[in-house]
Amino acid sequence: MILAVCGGKGGVGKSTVSLNLARELDAVVVDGDLTTPDLPWGRGPDLHDVLAGRASPIDAVERVGTVDVLPCGRTLAGARAADLERITDVVGPLDRRHSWVVLDCPAGLGADVGYQLFSADAAVLVTAPTRAGLVNALRTRQLARQLETPIVSAVLNKTTGDEVIRDRLERTIGAPTVPVERDADVARAQRTWQPVRDTAPDSPAVDAFETVAETITDAERDLKERRRRGAARSAGRRHRPH
């Protein structure tokens, strides 16, 4: 299953959520931000190379600690040469190799986000507990709806435990919303680009990311069941006598 982690505003922690969800789901995470990537990278081929046709997505995946990562390149020339319309050619082989693919989408609502949302089976929306964050969350939800990509969970990141904002976001998005409180353990893990589970397993953030992962896996079962029923209905209509 391909999961897009998105959010209209930059700086809300999409990459942190993506990395930690990849750890919880045992997924490969793809850094889909062509111009300002955040996830760790090595010396091998990267997403720029894959989108330009110079490398296969399977060969570009590298193990970083406990997580498989397909990193993005760091050069402006590489970003300009990359053809993001080919993102489905990237995630398709990864989806066949791995049970889960997590797409760490860039900020904003541009075509680069749209291509990645369109290629995903479902999405997780990440936002911060601010008015601007909620407004951008609503815009991202609208884009996902236009592309018919269901939002299966929302993450209210860097919160201070305000239940009112969480409830408002959950009503606005129409998906289970999990708060991740502002936590020094998360900040320390982020500085070394490691999942919190590996650096501070007793942190409340670990429980929060685990809850998001459980929500996603439950939604995956529901999505598969709906598709199965839809396929069965379509087959029935094709074979119905005139």
UniProtKB/TrEMBL annotation:
GO terms for cellular component: cytoplasmic side of plasma membrane; cytosol. Keywords: Cell projection, Cilium, Flagellum. GO terms for biological process: negative regulation of cell division. One of its GO terms (molecular function) is ATP binding. It comes from the Archaea. InterPro entries: CobQ/CobB/MinD/ParA_Nub-bd_dom (IPR002586), P-loop_NTPase (IPR027417), ParA/MinD_ATPase (IPR050625). Residues 3-192 form the CobQ/CobB/MinD/ParA nucleotide binding domain. Residues 226-242 have a biased composition (Basic residues). Gene3D superfamilies: P-loop containing nucleotide triphosphate hydrolases. Residues 217-242 are annotated as: Disordered. This is FleN family ATPase involved in flagellar biosynthesis. The gene is flhG.
